[in-house]
Amino acid sequence: MMPPLLLSGIPRKKAVNPYTDPAEVAPVSALSNLIALYASDNEQEQLRREAMSDEVWERYFFNESRDPVQREMEQDRLISHTKMAARAAAF
Q: Distance between CA atoms of 40 and 46, rounded to whole angstroms?
């Protein structure tokens, strides 16, 4: 049996497990900082767009005048308030 070939002068690298030591796998660099900043900016932009979409939905599409259940509840509340005021005025 032949002995394994050893290459002299070439440093051996240690095997790295990314699940146990992520700092060794991904050193901080300017590029990684730029990518993180870009991802954060995209996330903030997505949140801003969702907030604007929700605001537009609330303002133009979902209000009491367009929702029949809400409109009926509001009318019932006004009627009962008027009846109570009429009873109070009768005494």
A: 10
How do the domains of the chain map onto residue ranges?
A: 34-63
Angstrom distance (rounded) from CA 76 to CA 70: 10
Q: State how far the Cα of 42 lies from the Cα of 51, in Å rounded to an integer.
A: 14
This prediction's pTM: 0.41
State how far Cα 90 lies from the chain centre: 56
pLDDT in tens, 30-83: 898 999 999 999 999 999 999 999 998 888 877 666 778 888 898 999 999 999
Q: Is 89 exposed, middle or buried (0-12, 13-18, 19+ CB in 10 A)?
A: exposed
